[in-house]
Amino acid sequence: MYDYFNGKLVIKAPTHVVLDVGGIGYHIHISLTTYSQIKDQEQCKLYISFQVREDSQTLYGFATEGERQLFNHLISVSGIGPNTGRMMLSSITPEEIQRAIINGQVQIIQKIKGIGPKSAQRVILELQDKLKKQGPDALIPLPLAKQSVPEEALTALVMLGFGKPQAEKVLNSLAASDPEQTVEQLIKAALKRL
User: Fold this and answer.
1) Are 97 and 130 in contact (CB under 8 A)?
2) Element (H, E) at 8
3) What is the pTM of this model?
4) pLDDT band at residue 176 under the 50/70/90 scheme
5) At a CB cut-off of 8 Å and minimum separation 6, what does 61 contact?
6) Cys-Cys crosslink for 67: which of 62, 143, 181, 186, Cβ 3.0 to 4.6 Å?
7) What pLDDT is attached to residue 10?
8) Range of weakest confidence among 5-9, 41-45, 102-106, 131-135
């Protein structure tokens, strides 16, 4: 529903912020990782994960798209709710969590408050393949500069769930055979080969 909010930071605390966007103050829960990245700013942009439960509608904000993506992966695991996901991202960096999941390091995940051995194993079991497919640089924010046609097509294919190395290989061969293709043509042709 919401992708991001960009506004003035009215209140900053290690667990939440109030962001004034167009005269409306949004109470947004944040991780310590995000807090450390925005604490010196007056104005900021937070990527939002909007969580609806029976008894609440809660906004969770992240300084980077990669952190939000990892949060959404974490809360997709049975037994990991938004507060636990936020606790995980506050305990160790998103990069450390991703590395621990990909390498199957149960003991690192288990050290996080509120995560027992079974939960740590479940997180690794359910997310290891997804994170491996995304590649090691999945948490690095995408550049805001204009992307080339093959780069734009690659971004779209990765978002559709295809592995980055495989999609890149197919797109490179398609772009080499016809460099004048549009993004849409390139994606359609790649989908036939993947």
Assistant:
1) no
2) strand 4-12
3) 0.69
4) confident
5) 5, 17, 19, 28, 29, 30, 34, 46, 47, 48, 49
6) 62
7) 94
8) 131-135
Q: Identify which of 107, 42, 36, 103 has the alpha carbon closest to the alpha carbon of residue 67.
A: 36
Q: Which domains does the chain have, with CATH numbers?
A: 4-62 (2.40.50.140), 66-134 (1.10.150.20), 149-192 (1.10.8.10)
Helix (H) or strand (E) holding 132: helix 117-134
**For 151, phi and psi rounded to 5 degrees?**
-65, -40
Q: Of the given ranges (32-41, 52-61, 131-140, 147-156), which has the lowest mean pLDDT?
A: 131-140
| Radius of gyration of the chain, Cα coordinates, nearest whole angstrom | 19
C-alpha to C-alpha distances, 108 to 27, 117, 125, nearest whole angstrom: 31, 10, 14
The answer to whether the beta carbons of residues 67 and 83 sit under 8 Å apart is no
Which pair of structure tokens corresponds to residue 43?
């104005």
**Tally of CB atoms within 10 A around 53:** 9
Mean of pLDDT values over 172-178: 84
- Report residue 17: phi and psi, to 5°: -135, 160
Per-chain mean pLDDT for the chain: 87
- Whole-angstrom distance, CA of residue 96 vs CA of residue 21: 32
Could you tell me which of 47, 44, 10 has the C-alpha nearest to residue 26? 10
Question: Per the structure block, which two tokens stand in for 179?
Answer: 């460099």
